[in-house]
Amino acid sequence: MKPPSRWIICQHCDSLFESVPLIRGQQAECTRCGTVLKRGRRMSVQTLFALSITAALLFVFANAFPVISISFEGLSNEATLWTSVEALANGRITPMAALTGLTIILAPMLQIALLCWLLAFANVGRAAPGFKTCMRMLEHLRPWSMLEVCLLGILVAIIKLAGMLNVHPGFGLWALGMLTVLLILISDKDIHHLWDDLEGQIK
Amino acid sequence: MSQPPYARELNLMLCHTCGQVCLLDEHRCARCHSTVHARKPDSIARTWALLLAALIFYIPANLLPVMRTNMFGNATENTIMSGVIEFWKSGSWDIATLIFFASIVVPCMKFLILGFLLVTCQRKSRQAMGERSRLYRFIELIGYWSMLDVLVVALVAALVQFRSLSSIDPLLGIVFFGLVVVLTMLAAMSFDPRLIWDAEVEDV
Fold this sequence. Notes:
The complex is a heterodimer of chains A (203) and B (204).
Chain A: E1 7-9, E2 16-18, E3 27-29, E4 36-39, H1 45-64, E5 68-72, E6 75-79, H2 81-87, H3 94-123, H4 131-141, H5 147-162, E7 166-169, H6 171-186, H7 193-197
Antiparallel strand pairs in A: 1-2, 3-4, 5-6, 5-7
Helix pairs in contact in A: 1-3, 1-6, 2-3, 3-4, 5-6
Chain B: E1 12-14, E2 21-23, H1 43-63, E3 67-71, E4 74-78, H2 80-89, H3 93-122, H4 129-142, H5 148-159, E5 161-162, E6 166-170, H6 173-190, H7 194-198
Antiparallel strand pairs in B: 1-2, 3-4, 3-6, 5-6
């Protein structure tokens, strides 16, 4: 016997509900603990796909261009995301470089790549090869992607240094700002609807 | 209003990866093939272990300096707290408050709240279950903002490198601090909030 797929279980308190279809902007909350059970779909697969490609482009810009540059008595220097990771890679501090690299470069990069892959296929109504693995990875990556924290960190660093040097926000910072907003939008639960959309095709 | 039934009482459980309703005797979700458990395995023991490890690392994270600032030969070493105080004294109370919250209030809140949730779950307390559920969601939400200080140190150290004139270098304290962040995040992930509600079900 297979339980009916219209049932829904609250992940925080194990309550069982019967799921009702939601329209855009609606959300269902657990009556016992108040957790959001599901949200009405905010974006279509097409929109999500378009935004993922945009995010991929912005990711390239955010990494290729410096996020902050400083000048000081004729000397100047600039930092990209990668050089910030490298700055932690010396001596006993090295494990921190790996962690920072994961949270501000690797995790967002994988998220965007996986989203593009999954949505490119979903856009033509098919399940991408390795659909299950990709969806699982996306789920596990989400807590480790910390671009919004990174953005705040850059702003704090700018203010911290502004007292002693000339600090200029770089082009990479604008790209990163937009990327952060996009990534919050596309890495949301909307992608979960793919499980239902492609129900018959997942092998 | 009558409360909804618990899934476990009906021999059902949730797949966390895809949201599918699975039968209690299955080991893998029929739809996405992830491993499924009725409750996260050894949730209480694992959360305690990770939380205590984080608490131990929190001591060197606060005592050891996180960075060395070298300006024209004047080297100063800052711990997290002394960095906050420096900001405060130099007039940027807003940034000082921000870092104080991200690096000190958030980790301490995680220790207190997770510890509190663990103790009340072990005592099978039935009080304020809704509020405790909300507390859990709250620490899940704020947890990763403590990475702020690590990222600031990384950025500043990458920028200020003018050989002998001035430089900023990361120090060992930042490793311990990063470990605290990772361990508290793992602790929050291994805690199973459904244990809060299990107290209500008699036969578990």
